[in-house]
User: Fold these one by one.
Assistant:
Number 1:
Amino acid sequence: MAKLEPLPGTSDVWPPETERWVFLENTARRVFALYGFAELRTPILERTDVFVRSIGTDTEVVQKEMYSFHDRGGRSLTLRPEGTAGVMRAIAHQGIMPGEEKRVFYGGPMFRGERPAAGRKRQFHQIGIEAVGKCNPAVDAECAMALLHFLDEIGVVQRRFLINSRGSGEDRKRAAGVLRDFFRPQAEGMCEDCQRRLDSNVWRILDCKNPQCHGIIAKAPPILEMFGADSQAFFLEVRRILDACGVEYQVAPHLVRGLDYYQHTVFEVVCDSPHLGAQNAIAGGGRYEIELPGSRKPIQGVGFAFGVERLLMALGEPASEAAAIGPAEVYVAAVGDGTLIIALELAEKLRRAGLRVCCENEQRSMKAQMRSADKSGAELALIIGQEEAAGDQLTIKYLRESRQLTLPGNEAKTVVLEWFGRNNA
Ligand code: HAM
């Protein structure tokens, strides 16, 4: 049977679990639309350099986790490890005018070759938004609020919203120097990766997952203090707007996030739900500047993505109550020769009128069919026996009330549609 299992770090998602996914997707689509985000779908497969240049060569994702391969034409391709780079590629391809803003919402599978664990998968799913084209603290605050609004709607209450700044331009170079001076004398106590990062990309030390480095990192100076007036002012303005809008947040002085394209605001939502283990970051994002191969100018934007699997884990069971698809409303039973086709015709009409219908498709005993009707969750069973078929009649059985009545076919259909509050179209 091992061969039939999905690959490690990937899963089949079955109903009713899929209904929870739909609930999440629909809520995201609805809430993000309130902020002006419309859906963009980009390919899962992109040229490798789309990710390498934007995410950064010295990130875990690019160095260790990408699923890259050469196709038959010898091109290096990669299964997207995240959504932002592909969205930027699509926007750069379409073109964006100076001063124009594009707001997009996206979702779908992402791939990272990480060690599978609870809440950490190799194929996982993200939903995110990106507001592209403007560099304005108000947009950062709006994106953060869209995320928190969405989390409120789906009921993720045990959460902390962490924010920080990564500064921009010259500030980052200066801050990198200060960080190097701080970490270098302690290099011996740090992991091998961090010793290398001292020269290749010192920011990544702040994001190190190795517990060996955590004590040293905790004592590092807050990075915001290393920035000049412009970067400080940008961050203060984001905070001022969040304060004015009553958003609760914590400034996390060493939050840099794991991807190298960020500058200015970065944020993360960590969830203290008992259903989540160590992988408690359910969403992350921030402002970024991305340089794409073949594009003349870097593109700026701000956005975030959340992990669907992690969010569903954080929610535990109750979200399924808000499932998008309910059980069958009507069960159509057929007993006797020639009745099956009448049943199927009736079921089709009812479905066209908007009812969820489960229809018998074998010739089984009445008892067996009524057992299936109960199991289906339907409120009404419509029975077509030999007598009903001969007299163009239908029997309506109210499954939760143990009563039934037989009516002429058209009249019965009207009664059924009215029962569920549908028009007899
Ligand atoms: P990220 O923090 O790498 O950011 O991923 C965002 C979310 O995806 C995480 O908070 C987590 O919920 C989920 N996630 C990441 N890796 C895994 C995994 N292996 N298994 C399960 N869930 C996972 C980004 O990807 C950025 N593109 C976000 C962004 C958008 N920044 C600006 N715009």
Note: The radius of gyration is 28 Å.
Number 2:
Amino acid sequence: MNLRSIILLGILFVAAFVLVYFTSAMNHDSGEKNAVEAERRLKTNQIHYEVKRVALTFDDGPSGIYTEKLLDGLKERNVKATFFVMGENINGNEEIIKRMYDEGHLIGNHTYSHVNLANLSFENACDEINTTNAFVYNLTGYEVEYIRPPFGAWTEKLKSETNMAIVMWNVDPMDWKDQNSDIVSRRIIKNVKNEDIILLHDIFGSSVDAALKVVDELKKKGYTFVRVDELPENQKIVRSEGK
Ligand code: NI
């Protein structure tokens, strides 16, 4: 082998190396572009899904019979909800309250004994609210901020002198009247829209079944389930003017 052949071979070798190097670099580059594009699409879809958010809310519990089934179903589906509990129903169901809190649900107040607060003296109304708040605080260390007053009844004095945010609702499937999970879930799915607050009662087995059906159906339609404290304050979530 003479010098010329060695030089030629050397040049060929370097050329081959350069070719292989750039080809792989280009492939790498386009792979990276694909990954960026995929991420962009994912984000766009996520934004699309985030636009449709709804809150499931459950009043009148906890129920020693049905609430745990509901918590199991929500956990399986990785869904967080809001529970407006009654003080007198916490007795004997303390572990359920702890579980709600530990599993990331929002606990709100539904008075101690399901009274119409507007019919009580201010002191008695405060007792109904504070007793329930204290029960929840003693079990979880969480200071309740939200209240759903039974019958939607609230007063100007409570608004100005308590520190609670009032939560109403947009979708009422009348689950207490028609204790049938198909009827109740259909009413919700038919009427629900973005950022609605759905009213249910976890003291009925049919309502628990309806809620889980609604989760499965609305998830397919791109809905995300949030706690009421994740929704913007609007006419259905009203902050009080107290301290
Ligand atoms: Ni109620």
Note: Residues 54 and 196 are 5 Å apart (CA to CA).
